[in-house]
Amino acid sequence: MPIYEFICTSCGHQFETLRSAKDPSAILCTKCQSDAVKKILSSGSFKVGAGGSASLPSAPPVASCGRSGFS
């Protein structure tokens, strides 16, 4: 089951919940119990092959002060 991230539009609380994509029940804010929640896009990781995991690639390093990084 995937973990989804939500934000409550009533109180602004951000939270995660583990749930089936086929679960029809309403999602309630874990802080104020409001059902006014929106799913938000989260950065995450994913499984690769036989049990290994990998994260999304990071940005390349920034050049040091005063140098463009190109020669």
From TrEMBL:
UniProt feature coiled coil, ranges: none
Matches recorded under InterPro entries: Regulatory_FmdB_Zinc_ribbon (IPR013429)
Pfam families hit by this protein: Zn_ribbon_8
Official protein name in the record: Putative regulatory protein, FmdB family
Domain Putative regulatory protein FmdB zinc ribbon, residue spans: 1-42
Lineage, broadest ranks: Bacteria, Pseudomonadati, Thermodesulfobacteriota, Desulfobulbia, Desulfobulbales
Top-rank lineage group of the source organism: Bacteria
Ranges where the record places region Disordered: 52-71
